[in-house]
Amino acid sequence: MATVFDVAFYILDNLGDMSTMKLQKLCYYAQAWSLAWDGFPLFNEDFQAWANGPVCRELYDFHKGEFLINSEKIKERKTDYKFSNAEKETLDIVISDYGSKEAFWLSELTHKERPWLETRGSLGLGERSNAIISKELMQEYYSGLVANG
């Protein structure tokens, strides 16, 4: 199985330098749509329902304190994992559909979606949370969008 760093590298290698916030959201959507379309996660790492949207703690700890990131920076953490054709298709669609969006737009989108909202519960805007957005909730929600779409 891939790691979040493999997915991050793939995204950066295809789109170039970006903000760490945008990378977090693109990795989140790659995971979400893999769960919906393929029925399994791309990687094992979880996302937490932070104030600015979903954040993968392992990826955050790697880029902490940096605003921009590129594939060279993340190259040291990726594995030699080879994505399947289905995984590449998912990643390519996420890159195509979300890659041109700004980090803030992606963050705002996650704020309107059930996985982040439900995981945060009654927390107010800006309040800290390290609650994990379950893969089951992500799969249920995003699969529902496919069925209704």
Describe what this molecule looks like in 3D.
β2 (47-50) and β3 (53-55) form a beta hairpin. This protein has one domain. It has 149 residues and is mainly alpha-helical. The protein is built from 8 helices and 5 strands; from the N terminus they run αβαββαβααααβα. The chain is globular. The longest helix has 19 residues, at 20-38. This is Antitoxin SocA-like Panacea domain-containing protein. Residues 23-116 form the Antitoxin SocA-like Panacea domain.
Brief rundown of the structure:
The protein is mainly alpha-helical. It contains eight helices and five strands; from the N terminus they run H-E-H-E-E-H-E-H-H-H-H-E-H.
Which terms summarize this structure?
two-stranded antiparallel sheet; 58% helix; 8 helices; 149 residues; 3-stranded antiparallel beta sheet; mainly alpha
Question: Approximately what portion of the residues adopt beta-strand conformation?
Answer: 5-15%
β-strand number: 5
**Quaternary structure annotation:** single chain
- Main sheet characteristics: 3 strands, antiparallel
Structure classification: mainly alpha
Distance between the termini: 29 Å
Shape: globular
Can you give the helix content as a percent range? 55-70%
Mean pLDDT, to the nearest integer, reads 96
Radius of gyration: 14 Å
Strand order of the largest sheet: 3-2-5
Low-confidence stretches: none
> What is the helix tally?
8
Q: Please trace the helix and strand order, writing H or E for each element.
A: HEHEEHEHHHHEH
The figure for the number of domains is 1
Protein name: Antitoxin SocA-like Panacea domain-containing protein
Pfam family, one: SocA_Panacea
InterPro entries: SocA_Panacea
Domain Antitoxin SocA-like Panacea: 23-116
